[in-house]
Amino acid sequence: MTSDRRLPEVAWFSALCDDDYEFLGVPDPALASSWEHCTDIVRAAERNGFDNVLLPSGYALGIDASAFAAGIATRTSRINLLLAVRMGELWPPQLARQLATIDQMSGGRLTINIISSDLPGAPLPSAPRYQRTREYMTVLRTLLDGQPVDFDGEFVSVQLDPPRIGTVSGHCPPFYFGGFSDDAKHTAAVAADVFLTWPDTVAGVAATVNEMRDRAAAVGRELQFGLRSHVIVRPTTAEAVDATRRLASQLDDDTGAAIRSRALDSASVGVQRQAQLRESADGEGFAEEGLWTGIGRARSGAGAAIVGDPDQVAAKLGAYSDVGIDAFILSGYPHIAECDLFGRLVLETMPHRKLWQP
Questions:
Q1: Angle of the 126-144 helix axis to the 92-106 helix axis, nearest 10
Q2: What's the CA gap between 139 and 150, in Å, rounded?
Q3: Sorting pLDDT into bands at 50, 70 and 90, what band is 216?
Q4: Does 298 have pLDDT greater than 50?
Q5: Rounded to the nearest 10 degrees, how much is the dihedral formed by the CA atoms of 340, 59, 226, 255?
Q6: Could you say which of 67, 153, 155, 276 is the most buried, measured as most Cβ atoms within 10 Å of its Cβ?
Q7: Taking the CB of residue 171, how many other CB atoms lie within 10 A of it?
Q8: In the predicted model, is pLDDT for residue 311 greater than 90?
Protein backbone atom coordinates (compact mmCIF):
# COMPACT_ATOMS: atom_id res chain seq x y z
CA MET A 1 0.00 0.00 0.00
CA THR A 2 1.13 3.51 -0.75
CA SER A 3 -0.38 6.73 0.51
CA ASP A 4 -0.18 10.28 -0.81
CA ARG A 5 -1.95 12.80 1.41
CA ARG A 6 -2.31 15.16 -1.55
CA LEU A 7 -4.24 12.59 -3.55
CA PRO A 8 -7.06 11.00 -1.55
CA GLU A 9 -9.55 8.57 -3.00
CA VAL A 10 -12.95 10.25 -3.42
CA ALA A 11 -15.99 7.97 -3.52
CA TRP A 12 -19.74 8.49 -3.73
CA PHE A 13 -22.66 6.48 -2.30
CA SER A 14 -25.49 4.64 -4.06
CA ALA A 15 -28.62 4.59 -1.91
CA LEU A 16 -29.46 0.88 -2.13
CA CYS A 17 -31.13 0.99 1.33
CA ASP A 18 -33.85 3.57 0.56
CA ASP A 19 -31.66 6.38 1.87
CA ASP A 20 -32.46 9.11 -0.65
CA TYR A 21 -34.56 12.19 0.02
CA GLU A 22 -35.29 15.69 -1.15
CA PHE A 23 -36.49 16.45 2.38
CA LEU A 24 -35.14 14.38 5.28
CA GLY A 25 -37.71 11.91 6.58
CA VAL A 26 -40.14 12.40 3.69
CA PRO A 27 -40.19 9.33 1.42
CA ASP A 28 -40.36 10.02 -2.30
CA PRO A 29 -41.28 7.07 -4.54
CA ALA A 30 -39.08 8.51 -7.29
CA LEU A 31 -36.06 8.26 -4.98
CA ALA A 32 -36.79 4.82 -3.53
CA SER A 33 -34.16 2.14 -3.96
CA SER A 34 -34.51 0.35 -7.28
CA TRP A 35 -32.29 -1.05 -9.98
CA GLU A 36 -33.03 1.96 -12.18
CA HIS A 37 -32.52 4.68 -9.58
CA CYS A 38 -29.39 3.22 -8.00
CA THR A 39 -27.92 2.60 -11.46
CA ASP A 40 -28.46 6.27 -12.24
CA ILE A 41 -26.60 7.24 -9.05
CA VAL A 42 -23.60 5.05 -9.91
CA ARG A 43 -23.52 6.34 -13.47
CA ALA A 44 -23.61 9.92 -12.17
CA ALA A 45 -20.67 9.13 -9.88
CA GLU A 46 -18.68 7.64 -12.75
CA ARG A 47 -19.59 10.54 -15.04
CA ASN A 48 -18.42 13.05 -12.44
CA GLY A 49 -15.06 11.35 -12.00
CA PHE A 50 -15.41 9.70 -8.59
CA ASP A 51 -12.90 6.94 -7.89
CA ASN A 52 -15.18 4.50 -6.08
CA VAL A 53 -18.83 4.07 -5.08
CA LEU A 54 -20.18 2.46 -1.90
CA LEU A 55 -22.95 -0.11 -2.43
CA PRO A 56 -24.49 -0.49 1.06
CA SER A 57 -26.13 -3.64 2.36
CA GLY A 58 -29.43 -3.85 4.24
CA TYR A 59 -32.32 -6.22 4.75
CA ALA A 60 -35.64 -4.50 5.46
CA LEU A 61 -35.09 -1.69 2.98
CA GLY A 62 -33.93 -1.51 -0.59
CA ILE A 63 -32.37 -3.96 -3.02
CA ASP A 64 -29.63 -6.55 -2.58
CA ALA A 65 -26.11 -5.15 -2.78
CA SER A 66 -24.33 -8.20 -4.23
CA ALA A 67 -26.87 -8.73 -6.98
CA PHE A 68 -26.74 -5.03 -7.77
CA ALA A 69 -22.92 -5.04 -7.87
CA ALA A 70 -22.92 -7.87 -10.39
CA GLY A 71 -25.36 -6.01 -12.59
CA ILE A 72 -23.72 -2.59 -12.39
CA ALA A 73 -20.28 -4.08 -13.01
CA THR A 74 -21.30 -4.63 -16.62
CA ARG A 75 -22.66 -1.09 -17.02
CA THR A 76 -19.63 0.81 -15.79
CA SER A 77 -16.06 0.90 -17.01
CA ARG A 78 -13.87 3.02 -14.73
CA ILE A 79 -15.27 3.49 -11.24
CA ASN A 80 -14.39 1.00 -8.47
CA LEU A 81 -17.27 -0.74 -6.70
CA LEU A 82 -17.16 -0.83 -2.88
CA LEU A 83 -19.53 -3.69 -2.12
CA ALA A 84 -20.81 -3.99 1.45
CA VAL A 85 -20.91 -7.63 2.60
CA ARG A 86 -22.30 -8.69 5.99
CA MET A 87 -20.20 -11.42 7.57
CA GLY A 88 -22.25 -14.51 8.40
CA GLU A 89 -24.86 -14.27 5.68
CA LEU A 90 -23.11 -16.64 3.27
CA TRP A 91 -20.69 -19.54 3.78
CA PRO A 92 -17.16 -18.10 3.25
CA PRO A 93 -16.07 -20.40 0.38
CA GLN A 94 -19.25 -19.62 -1.54
CA LEU A 95 -18.89 -15.92 -0.74
CA ALA A 96 -15.32 -16.03 -2.06
CA ARG A 97 -16.56 -17.49 -5.37
CA GLN A 98 -19.28 -14.84 -5.56
CA LEU A 99 -16.87 -11.98 -4.92
CA ALA A 100 -14.30 -13.34 -7.37
CA THR A 101 -17.02 -13.58 -10.01
CA ILE A 102 -18.13 -9.97 -9.45
CA ASP A 103 -14.50 -8.87 -9.61
CA GLN A 104 -14.15 -10.68 -12.95
CA MET A 105 -17.35 -9.06 -14.23
CA SER A 106 -16.02 -5.61 -13.32
CA GLY A 107 -12.57 -6.14 -14.79
CA GLY A 108 -10.91 -6.04 -11.38
CA ARG A 109 -12.72 -3.01 -9.96
CA LEU A 110 -14.14 -4.65 -6.83
CA THR A 111 -13.37 -3.39 -3.32
CA ILE A 112 -15.09 -4.84 -0.24
CA ASN A 113 -16.76 -3.12 2.70
CA ILE A 114 -16.83 -5.66 5.54
CA ILE A 115 -19.99 -5.33 7.68
CA SER A 116 -20.19 -6.89 11.15
CA SER A 117 -23.64 -5.81 12.35
CA ASP A 118 -26.23 -8.37 13.46
CA LEU A 119 -27.73 -10.71 10.92
CA PRO A 120 -31.42 -9.93 10.40
CA GLY A 121 -33.42 -11.78 13.05
CA ALA A 122 -30.32 -13.31 14.67
CA PRO A 123 -28.69 -10.89 17.14
CA LEU A 124 -25.33 -11.85 18.63
CA PRO A 125 -23.33 -10.13 21.40
CA SER A 126 -20.42 -7.99 20.29
CA ALA A 127 -17.50 -10.27 21.18
CA PRO A 128 -18.68 -13.41 19.34
CA ARG A 129 -20.04 -11.34 16.46
CA TYR A 130 -16.64 -9.78 15.81
CA GLN A 131 -14.96 -13.13 16.33
CA ARG A 132 -17.14 -14.47 13.53
CA THR A 133 -16.22 -11.48 11.39
CA ARG A 134 -12.47 -12.02 11.89
CA GLU A 135 -12.79 -15.69 11.01
CA TYR A 136 -14.72 -14.87 7.84
CA MET A 137 -12.17 -12.22 6.86
CA THR A 138 -9.30 -14.67 7.37
CA VAL A 139 -10.89 -17.38 5.24
CA LEU A 140 -12.05 -14.93 2.55
CA ARG A 141 -8.63 -13.32 2.23
CA THR A 142 -6.90 -16.71 1.95
CA LEU A 143 -9.24 -18.03 -0.74
CA LEU A 144 -9.31 -14.76 -2.69
CA ASP A 145 -5.51 -14.75 -2.62
CA GLY A 146 -5.77 -18.07 -4.44
CA GLN A 147 -4.44 -20.11 -1.54
CA PRO A 148 -5.79 -23.29 0.07
CA VAL A 149 -7.39 -22.73 3.47
CA ASP A 150 -7.01 -24.88 6.59
CA PHE A 151 -8.88 -23.08 9.34
CA ASP A 152 -10.56 -24.27 12.52
CA GLY A 153 -12.32 -21.52 14.48
CA GLU A 154 -15.40 -21.01 16.62
CA PHE A 155 -17.64 -20.17 13.66
CA VAL A 156 -15.75 -21.48 10.63
CA SER A 157 -14.02 -24.83 10.23
CA VAL A 158 -12.90 -25.56 6.71
CA GLN A 159 -10.15 -27.32 4.77
CA LEU A 160 -10.45 -26.48 1.11
CA ASP A 161 -8.53 -25.61 -2.03
CA PRO A 162 -9.36 -22.23 -3.62
CA PRO A 163 -12.01 -22.19 -6.33
CA ARG A 164 -10.85 -22.18 -9.93
CA ILE A 165 -12.21 -18.69 -10.51
CA GLY A 166 -10.13 -15.97 -8.92
CA THR A 167 -9.93 -12.20 -8.98
CA VAL A 168 -8.42 -10.35 -11.92
CA SER A 169 -5.34 -9.44 -9.88
CA GLY A 170 -5.01 -12.88 -8.33
CA HIS A 171 -5.21 -11.27 -4.90
CA CYS A 172 -7.93 -10.45 -2.40
CA PRO A 173 -9.58 -7.06 -2.99
CA PRO A 174 -8.99 -4.60 -0.14
CA PHE A 175 -11.17 -4.79 2.96
CA TYR A 176 -12.68 -1.49 4.08
CA PHE A 177 -14.02 -1.80 7.62
CA GLY A 178 -15.47 0.48 10.30
CA GLY A 179 -16.52 0.21 13.93
CA PHE A 180 -15.91 1.95 17.22
CA SER A 181 -16.24 -0.66 19.94
CA ASP A 182 -13.07 -2.27 21.27
CA ASP A 183 -14.00 -5.49 19.47
CA ALA A 184 -14.42 -3.62 16.20
CA LYS A 185 -11.15 -1.72 16.57
CA HIS A 186 -9.28 -4.93 17.29
CA THR A 187 -10.83 -6.52 14.20
CA ALA A 188 -9.76 -3.58 12.05
CA ALA A 189 -6.23 -3.61 13.43
CA VAL A 190 -5.64 -7.29 12.71
CA ALA A 191 -7.65 -7.86 9.52
CA ALA A 192 -8.68 -4.69 7.61
CA ASP A 193 -6.90 -2.64 4.96
CA VAL A 194 -8.82 0.65 5.27
CA PHE A 195 -10.37 1.73 8.57
CA LEU A 196 -13.53 3.77 8.02
CA THR A 197 -14.62 6.41 10.49
CA TRP A 198 -17.76 8.56 10.58
CA PRO A 199 -18.07 12.35 10.64
CA ASP A 200 -16.45 14.06 13.59
CA THR A 201 -14.52 17.21 14.33
CA VAL A 202 -11.11 17.37 12.74
CA ALA A 203 -9.56 16.81 16.17
CA GLY A 204 -11.88 13.85 16.77
CA VAL A 205 -10.92 12.24 13.47
CA ALA A 206 -7.23 12.83 14.22
CA ALA A 207 -7.59 11.06 17.56
CA THR A 208 -9.28 8.08 15.89
CA VAL A 209 -6.57 7.84 13.21
CA ASN A 210 -3.79 8.00 15.80
CA GLU A 211 -5.43 5.36 17.99
CA MET A 212 -5.99 2.97 15.09
CA ARG A 213 -2.51 3.55 13.71
CA ASP A 214 -1.10 2.54 17.11
CA ARG A 215 -3.37 -0.51 17.37
CA ALA A 216 -2.28 -1.72 13.93
CA ALA A 217 1.40 -1.12 14.66
CA ALA A 218 1.09 -3.17 17.85
CA VAL A 219 0.26 -6.24 15.73
CA GLY A 220 2.81 -5.45 13.02
CA ARG A 221 0.40 -3.97 10.47
CA GLU A 222 -0.42 -0.66 8.77
CA LEU A 223 -3.83 0.76 7.94
CA GLN A 224 -5.13 3.36 5.57
CA PHE A 225 -8.03 5.52 6.68
CA GLY A 226 -11.35 6.59 5.19
CA LEU A 227 -14.02 9.09 6.24
CA ARG A 228 -17.69 8.43 5.46
CA SER A 229 -19.55 11.76 5.38
CA HIS A 230 -22.33 13.64 3.69
CA VAL A 231 -21.59 16.87 1.85
CA ILE A 232 -23.55 19.99 0.92
CA VAL A 233 -21.68 22.38 -1.38
CA ARG A 234 -23.11 25.50 -3.01
CA PRO A 235 -21.54 28.48 -4.83
CA THR A 236 -21.74 30.55 -1.62
CA THR A 237 -21.68 29.78 2.10
CA ALA A 238 -25.10 31.36 2.57
CA GLU A 239 -26.60 29.11 -0.09
CA ALA A 240 -25.04 26.04 1.54
CA VAL A 241 -26.46 26.93 4.96
CA ASP A 242 -29.86 27.61 3.37
CA ALA A 243 -29.66 24.13 1.81
CA THR A 244 -29.22 22.56 5.28
CA ARG A 245 -32.33 24.36 6.51
CA ARG A 246 -34.37 23.30 3.49
CA LEU A 247 -33.24 19.67 3.77
CA ALA A 248 -34.45 19.44 7.39
CA SER A 249 -37.47 21.69 7.00
CA GLN A 250 -40.10 18.91 6.95
CA LEU A 251 -38.56 16.59 9.54
CA ASP A 252 -40.18 16.07 12.94
CA ASP A 253 -38.42 14.39 15.86
CA ASP A 254 -40.75 11.36 16.03
CA THR A 255 -40.19 10.52 12.36
CA GLY A 256 -36.45 10.93 12.74
CA ALA A 257 -36.35 8.64 15.78
CA ALA A 258 -38.35 5.98 13.93
CA ILE A 259 -35.95 6.09 10.97
CA ARG A 260 -32.90 5.77 13.22
CA SER A 261 -34.35 2.85 15.17
CA ARG A 262 -34.87 0.72 12.04
CA ALA A 263 -31.13 0.28 11.42
CA LEU A 264 -29.39 -2.92 12.54
CA ASP A 265 -26.59 -0.80 14.06
CA SER A 266 -28.85 1.70 15.83
CA ALA A 267 -27.41 0.94 19.30
CA SER A 268 -23.73 0.75 18.29
CA VAL A 269 -20.90 2.76 19.84
CA GLY A 270 -20.45 4.66 16.59
CA VAL A 271 -24.11 5.68 16.46
CA GLN A 272 -23.88 6.87 20.07
CA ARG A 273 -20.90 9.04 19.12
CA GLN A 274 -22.94 10.61 16.31
CA ALA A 275 -25.66 11.42 18.85
CA GLN A 276 -23.08 13.05 21.12
CA LEU A 277 -21.87 15.13 18.18
CA ARG A 278 -25.42 16.40 17.58
CA GLU A 279 -25.83 17.23 21.25
CA SER A 280 -22.64 19.30 21.20
CA ALA A 281 -23.73 21.34 18.16
CA ASP A 282 -24.90 24.94 18.13
CA GLY A 283 -28.47 26.07 17.45
CA GLU A 284 -28.04 25.59 13.70
CA GLY A 285 -26.68 22.07 14.18
CA PHE A 286 -22.99 22.84 13.51
CA ALA A 287 -20.50 20.94 15.70
CA GLU A 288 -17.67 23.06 14.32
CA GLU A 289 -17.22 25.28 11.30
CA GLY A 290 -18.34 23.41 8.18
CA LEU A 291 -19.65 20.31 10.02
CA TRP A 292 -23.46 20.14 10.21
CA THR A 293 -25.05 17.38 12.31
CA GLY A 294 -28.68 17.74 11.22
CA ILE A 295 -28.62 14.71 8.94
CA GLY A 296 -28.21 12.47 11.98
CA ARG A 297 -31.69 13.45 13.14
CA ALA A 298 -33.07 11.18 10.39
CA ARG A 299 -30.33 8.63 9.84
CA SER A 300 -28.54 5.96 11.83
CA GLY A 301 -24.86 5.79 11.04
CA ALA A 302 -22.93 8.66 9.45
CA GLY A 303 -24.96 11.62 10.62
CA ALA A 304 -23.16 14.82 9.66
CA ALA A 305 -22.30 16.76 6.52
CA ILE A 306 -19.38 18.87 5.38
CA VAL A 307 -21.02 22.16 4.40
CA GLY A 308 -19.83 25.29 2.62
CA ASP A 309 -18.78 26.91 -0.62
CA PRO A 310 -16.34 25.04 -2.89
CA ASP A 311 -13.22 26.49 -1.26
CA GLN A 312 -14.53 25.78 2.24
CA VAL A 313 -15.48 22.20 1.42
CA ALA A 314 -12.14 21.56 -0.26
CA ALA A 315 -10.34 23.06 2.75
CA LYS A 316 -12.32 20.87 5.15
CA LEU A 317 -11.45 17.76 3.16
CA GLY A 318 -7.84 18.93 3.16
CA ALA A 319 -7.89 19.33 6.94
CA TYR A 320 -9.10 15.75 7.33
CA SER A 321 -6.48 14.57 4.85
CA ASP A 322 -3.80 16.36 6.84
CA VAL A 323 -4.66 14.31 9.94
CA GLY A 324 -4.44 11.02 8.05
CA ILE A 325 -7.55 10.43 5.94
CA ASP A 326 -6.70 8.64 2.68
CA ALA A 327 -10.22 8.19 1.31
CA PHE A 328 -13.55 10.01 1.45
CA ILE A 329 -16.91 8.30 0.91
CA LEU A 330 -19.36 11.12 0.34
CA SER A 331 -23.09 11.43 -0.25
CA GLY A 332 -25.80 14.07 -0.34
CA TYR A 333 -29.54 14.49 -0.73
CA PRO A 334 -30.86 13.92 -3.33
CA HIS A 335 -27.88 11.79 -4.29
CA ILE A 336 -27.74 12.48 -8.02
CA ALA A 337 -28.19 16.25 -7.69
CA GLU A 338 -25.56 16.52 -4.96
CA CYS A 339 -23.22 14.21 -6.85
CA ASP A 340 -23.39 16.56 -9.82
CA LEU A 341 -22.89 19.64 -7.63
CA PHE A 342 -19.86 18.25 -5.82
CA GLY A 343 -18.44 16.93 -9.08
CA ARG A 344 -18.75 20.29 -10.80
CA LEU A 345 -17.88 22.61 -7.91
CA VAL A 346 -15.15 20.63 -6.12
CA LEU A 347 -14.04 17.36 -7.71
CA GLU A 348 -13.18 18.82 -11.12
CA THR A 349 -10.36 20.84 -9.53
CA MET A 350 -9.48 18.48 -6.66
CA PRO A 351 -6.56 16.10 -7.28
CA HIS A 352 -7.55 12.56 -6.34
CA ARG A 353 -6.86 8.97 -7.26
CA LYS A 354 -7.99 5.42 -6.63
CA LEU A 355 -6.39 3.78 -3.63
CA TRP A 356 -6.62 0.45 -5.45
CA GLN A 357 -6.01 0.01 -9.17
CA PRO A 358 -7.43 -2.95 -11.15
A1: 50
A2: 9
A3: very high
A4: yes
A5: 70
A6: 155
A7: 13
A8: yes
Range 32-70 burial, b when 16+ CB lie within 10 A, else e: ebbeebbbebbbbbbebebbbbbbbbbeeebbebbebbb
pLDDT tens digits for 149-171?
Answer: 999 999 999 999 999 999 999 99
Q: Give the CATH superfamily of 9-231+310-349.
A: Luciferase-like domain (3.20.20.30)
How far apart, in whole angstroms, are the C-alpha atoms of residue 59 and residue 182?
A: 26
Pairwise CA distance, residues 98 & 68, whole Å: 13
Q: Is residue 300 very low, low, confident or very high in pLDDT (cuts 50, 70, 90)?
A: low
5-20: per-residue pLDDT in tens?
A: 568 999 999 999 999 9
Q: What is the pLDDT of residues 22-78, one digit of tens each?
A: 999 898 999 999 999 999 999 999 999 999 999 999 888 899 999 999 999 999 999
Taking Cα atoms as reference points, which of 346, 349, 339 lies closest to residue 41?
A: 339
Q: Is the dihedral of CA 195, 197, 202, 207 positive or negative?
A: negative
Percent of the chain whose predicted confidence (pLDDT) is above 90: 81
Q: Note whether 348 and 50 are within 8 A (CB).
A: no
